[in-house]
């Protein structure tokens, strides 16, 4: 099997705004993509990555907050409880940090890479990361949660990202401004 090369897409790339499709049958290609997504996430210092962030619009995410790697296919939230708001960064919107309101506890149902059904009871950081990555599957970005004031403040930064997404790599200082890179 030829190895696929994955590159994180940056704000301005149309793939980030497309709604992802359900994976009907898990294949060797899906398993390979999930492994490459995990490698890409680790290389870029993230703790979560969704398939649209690498230009693949299928319902797949990888997450590792330090307690083990999850490779999830067709994840969906079944239950939500409580509230939290953590300042989030995003590998696809480098240099932008937004405090995003999310559920504090969630129950997620998904398939693993071997089509085994999973139930994940997540809270706090893990719940936040799962919700962030699942937003990507719907074409939603952290900037969609920004207040009007924050939108005005980041307008110039987003214009720069959009322009640079097509032309050049971003420096490390431009990509690492948030503690939480998802």
CATH hierarchy class name: Alpha Beta
| Termini Cα gap | 29 Å
Helix proportion of residues, in percent? 25-40%
CATH architecture: Alpha-Beta Complex
Short précis:
The chain is an alpha+beta fold and 182 residues long.
Describe the structure.
The chain is an alpha+beta fold and 182 residues long. The chain has a single domain (14-175), classed as Peptide deformylase (Peptide Deformylase), CATH 3.90.45.10. The protein has helices at 28-43, 124-137, 148-165, 172-175; strands at 48-50, 60-63, 70-81, 84-88, 98-102, 105-111, 117-123. Strands 1-2-3-6-7 form a five-stranded antiparallel sheet. It has a two-stranded antiparallel sheet with strand order 4-5. A hairpin with a 5-residue loop joins strand 6 and strand 7 (117-123).
Keyphrases for this structure?
single chain, 182 residues, alpha+beta, Peptide Deformylase, 5-stranded antiparallel beta sheet, two-stranded antiparallel sheet, 4 helices, 24% strand, globular
Question: Which secondary structure elements does this structure contain, and how are they paired or packed?
Answer:
Elements: H1 28-43, E1 48-50, E2 60-63, E3 70-81, E4 84-88, E5 98-102, E6 105-111, E7 117-123, H2 124-137, H3 148-165, H4 172-175
Antiparallel strand pairs: 1-2, 2-3, 3-6, 4-5, 6-7
